[in-house]
Amino acid sequence: YQLRRAGADVLLVDAYGPANSRASSGGESRILRLGYGPDAIYTRMALRSFELWRQLFDYMARPQLFQPTGVLWLAREHDPYCEATLKTFEQNDVKFARLERSELSHRYPQLEFGPVAWGMLESESGVLLARQAVQALVAAAQSLGLTYVQAAIRPPESGKEKLEFVETTSGDRVLADKFVFACGPWLPKLFPEFLAELIHVTRQEVFFLGVPAGDNRFLPDKMPAWIDFNDLVYGIPNLENRGVKIAIDEHGPPFDPDTGERIVLPESVTRLRAYLARRVPALADAPVIESRVCQYENTSNGDFLIDRHPAFENAWIVGGGSGHGFKHGPGVGEHVASLVSNNAQVEPRFALATKEKVQLRQVY
User: Fold this and answer.
1) In this predicted model, what pLDDT tens digit does every residue of 72-98 receive, in sequence order?
2) I need a surface site. Which of 51, 53, 184, 360 has the fewest CB within 10 A?
């Protein structure tokens, strides 16, 4: 989209279709938050992406694709990550409110706060309707003249300094001057020689809980999205009447995005029930009315991977969303368009050389 807006001729090749159910960005909703502990680089990128998302939705006359629920952070008494987030907010003029425990209980009686001592409310943040947003983005790009093809490609053959073409699994060749591979969990399959041990694809499960009939306590005007990184859980209010979304943010086992079965495990439902009994007791026995199995594609520490291909001078690798990448899509797109146009330098934190084989999560 950004390259096409800049005047480039762009062909988008997609294996399964926009926002398909195998994609990391194919779910119904994604939180758009600005907080990243001390990592101001992501706060600034999220701010820029927020602006670009709104521009896109205005252009498409679909402002409802962003739901301004607010995002509530749940913090413990001594909570270095949340305290660093607060400081980063102050340094970057992010609108937020610090809420003490009594105020949390008064505002949000739906939640049982337990060891939570205080919280931060990102008042202008909220939730992106991800599946619809991706489809809207592709439609917007096509309206500007982008060519879209649904096809799968084979791993490119190495041995040359410049990539001349990619070949689809049906044998068609796609020739271009420059290539961008933004392929999420498929990157290790396309480039196993250098990414097989650097991008770790993990299975993640998501649940939607049915709220009691006539109960409006879980609607977005009553309850914000919330993040509890101490328990590695996040929640989203009842959007589009799908129920309250709860997900465990802890990295799951290895997962194949092509062949993996996308059925939640019984032990995961048991773990979900235990969390609900502690944090959202009104939903402890609520029925699971929908569930999803998606995936994260994680770098060693959670930083993005945005760099030139190590062998092909005219190809770029973009990935490592690591569970938090969707909200940054517009900012990443803008940055990659600048790199491809030789108007920017690789951000050192996103460089291929910084990626390790052993996972030690530092970015949340």
Assistant:
1) 999 999 999 999 999 999 999 999 999
2) 360
pLDDT tens for 94-153 read 999 999 999 999 999 999 999 999 999 999 999 999 999 999 999 999 999 999 999 999
E strand or H helix at 333, and its extent?
A: helix 329-340
CA angle 66, 131, 196 (to 5 degrees): 120
∠ Cα 112 114 120 (to 5°) = 80
d(CA 25, CA 204): 13
* Residue 302 region by backbone torsions, left for phi larger than 0, else alpha for psi between -120 and 50, else beta: left
The Cα 108–Cα 121 span in angstroms is: 12
DSSP string, 184-216: GGGHHHH-HHHHTTT-EEEEEEEEEEPPPTT--
CATH of domain 2-20+132-199+301-354: 3.50.50.60
C-alpha gyration radius of the chain:
21
- Calpha distance 126→33 (Å, rounded): 7
pLDDT at 26 over 90: no
Domain boundaries, the chain: 2-20+132-199+301-354
Tokens matching residue 170 = 């049906």
Summarize the confidence of residues 305-314 as an average pLDDT. Answer: 97
Return left, alpha or beta for 144; rule: phi > 0 is left, psi -120 to 50 is alpha, else beta.
alpha
Structure tokens at 301: 């520490």
Length of the chain: 364
DSSP state of 242: S
Average pLDDT value over all residues in the chain: 96
Q: Are strands 315-319 and 179-181 parallel, antiparallel or unpaired?
A: parallel
Q: Rounded to two decimals, what is the model's pTM?
A: 0.96
317, 309 Cβ separation under 8 angstroms:
yes
The residue assigned the tokens 């600034």 is 44
CA distances from 206 to 30, 101, 268 (A): 11, 28, 10
Are 176 and 315 contacting, i.e. CB atoms less than 8 angstroms apart?
A: no
CB atoms within 10 A of CB 268: 17
**Which of 309, 262, 283, 282 has its CA nearest to residue 23?**
262
